[in-house]
Amino acid sequence: MTSGNQVSPNTQTQAPAHFQESPTDSILRFEHVTIRFDEETALDDVSFNVLRGQTRIILGAAGSGKSVLLKAATGLVPVASGNVFLFDRQTTNLPEDEMYAVRSQVGMAFQESALFDSMTIAQNVAYPLLNQPSIKSKPDEARAKVKEALNFVELGQTLDKYPSELSGGMRRRAAIARAVVTKPPLLLYDSPTAGLDPITAHTIMQLIIKERDVDATTALVVTHRYQDGSLVANFRYNSQNESLEPSRQSDSTRFMVMREGKLIFEGDQDQLEASKDPYIGKFVKHAG
Amino acid sequence: MALQEFYLLFGRALRNVVRTPHYWDDVLIQMDTIGVGSLWITAMTGFFSGAVMALQMGHALAQYGQTGRTGQVVSIILVRELGPALTALMVAGRNSSGIASELGSMKVTEQIDAMRALGTDPIQKLVTPRMIATAAMLPALTVIADLIGMFGGFIVGYFIYALQPREYWSTTWKALDWADVAEGLVKPFIFSFVISLVGCYYGLRTSGGTQGVGRATTQAVVTSSVLIFVLTFFITKFFVSQSPQ
Q1: pLDDT tens readout for residues B142-171
Q2: Nearest CA in chain B to A99
Q3: Which of A76, A106, A114 sits opposite B111 (nearest CB)?
Q4: How remote is the C-alpha of A77 from its chain's centroid?
Q5: Looking at this predicted complex, what is its ipTM?
Q6: B82 or A21: which carries more pLDDT confidence?
Q7: Angle at A221 between CA A220 and CA A223, to 5 degrees
Q8: pTM of the predicted model, to two decimals?
Q9: Is A234 exposed, middle or buried (0-12, 13-18, 19+ CB in 10 A)?
Q10: Residues of chain A contacting B106 with CB distance shorter than 8 Å
Q11: Nearest CB neighbour to A131, from listed B110, B113, B119
Q12: How far is A143 from A122, CA to CA, in rounded Å?
């Protein structure tokens, strides 16, 4: 792993001054996590610590382990070695029944939306409210929260539509609504802008920034587009005029770069842009 | 390894029958899909298998002057063997493949992962309802196929071999005893687990995108069909060994 400049593999990055670690500030921590699928190593000795209020932008080429990292965070894939801590609780290979309570504090938007085809958008968004064992809202409460979440992503008119009736961008927004409807303190976005046109991608990123600033959530955003991370790092949501405005978020926005299962960079935007690593440079230069 | 995973799936699906939450809505939906949806093909299969059997048996028995026993032979073979096996094969072709492709598509589009991330055990939500629904509907479909098959045999007996209705139906009913009925119900009940769980098993382990879904669907149909024949032999052997000489 490198932090801005090249450092030895196991060196932890220093957090910014107001994000100095304390056990209670740690939202998600990986300690030397390795994940294998058959003979293939998907994550190789990955360590990092996400603090409360931070947004992590995870860059990397296809197959570099970004999505696996998010799934490992929520216990959706088994860890071969190392430890994962969610909200300071060790979740490594925790039994599935016990993971449900932990997962209720995490919202996840999957790469291809992963909306349930057989359910309407309203039923999809209500799903975590009605099925998370530690939440189990009443139907009336759930209905109100679903409307609120869909209005948040500006899809209030799609309650009774099925996922197949929506465009790709609308499905991503519905997936974000499903992820945020329980107001979880941690949000994981897996390639939220992949395959979308620039305008729709911008809308999605605007929603992610809005969610960060309105509900003060911690987030991990997997992407292969540097401009997504740059937007998060340099803009904030103005709720009065309901738009983004320039505001440097360098303390709370950190970048991570994955390569072949390894975490090769962790640092802020300036450090990322100053990196001499040709692999890292590809992401930054492509954006320029 | 695959067998171990299959047994694990079977064990967890079975355990979920007595564990909450129960998804009864999903059970009813699956009963409709598997049971009502398969009614037409099982009825057609039953009718024509009964008719063909009556045609062949009537012809063979005529050589011994025993055409009147056509109903007896048709009912025994249908209830003991052909009814359960053919109905199970039809339902396997229609539903084991359907289950594998549905769950396989959910797997490759991360809906299964999403379900787990949103607090639901996919086995409880997807596998157990399909298992319960198939176990409830397959014996019922088999009984319907048997009855329609007997009717098919009657049509052939009446119009081709000039059998009297009373003659046909009385030999048909008298030929059956409780052991035949038990065999005819135990078989579809056991086959139902094969059909539902093989479909779920291949669906849940799908990988490799749409190509993987196609592969899972084919494997589900082939495996469940072969298992139905293998199990037919062993269950029949068991019942034969239990019956008095």
Answers
A1: 999 999 999 999 999 999 988 999 989 998
A2: B119
A3: A114
A4: 16
A5: 0.85
A6: B82
A7: 150
A8: 0.86
A9: middle
A10: 116-117
A11: B119
A12: 8
